[in-house]
Automatic annotation (TrEMBL):
It comes from Zea mays (Maize). This is Uncharacterized protein.
Length: 37
């Protein structure tokens, strides 16, 4: 979890970052599975 000094001010930014992060991880896992298979 990302801890930000700004607190609630950056909740939206952190949420967008987490969505992007999970999207990248999902893509990496998907392509990784294809390359392993």
């Amino acid at each position: 979890m990302i801890i930000s000094p700004a607190g609630s001010v950056s909740l939206v930014t952190n949420s967008n970052f987490l969505l992007l992060y999970y999207y990248i991880i999902a893509s990496y896992v998907k392509y990784g599975a294809f390359s392993l298979s």
